[in-house]
Amino acid sequence: NPAVAKILKVSLIGCYSHKFNLTVKKFIKDKYQDIVDKVTALCIELRKSNNAGKLAQHTSLHALRYNETR
User: Fold this and answer.
1) Are 64 and 43 in contact (CB under 8 A)?
2) Are 15 and 23 spatial neighbours (Cβ–Cβ below 8 Å)?
3) Distance CA 23, CA 8 (A)
4) What pLDDT does residue 47 have?
5) Which of 11, 24, 65, 68 is the most buried (most CB within 10 A)?
6) pLDDT digit string (tens) for 11-66?
7) pLDDT of the residue at 69
């Protein structure tokens, strides 16, 4: 975390995990929000039973629900 915070020019005073989470969210929102939205929509579709069954035929991985923190 300190190395990434140094690259992003963010201080790590206070609750480190919270500040780091906010910084990453801001970075993602500024540059990659459209990709995150597409991946979230895909994971929602892959969790439906028909699609989950098809996914299980190809891999042992499962689509997870997006977990918003704080």
Assistant:
1) yes
2) no
3) 8
4) 86
5) 24
6) 766 677 777 788 888 888 878 888 988 988 888 888 888 888 888 899 888 887 76
7) 59
In terms of Cα–Cα distance, which of 53, 34, 8, 52 is closest to 64?
Answer: 52
pTM of the model: 0.54
In the three-class reduction of DSSP (H, G, I as helix; E, B as strand; rest coil), residue 32 is classed as: coil
Measured CA to CA, the distance from residue 42 to residue 40 in angstroms comes to 5
Tokens 């963010």, residue located: 10
- How is residue 53 written in tokens? 């069954």
Nearest Cα neighbor of 65 from 31, 48, 50, 54 is 48
Structural tokens at position 4: 């990434």
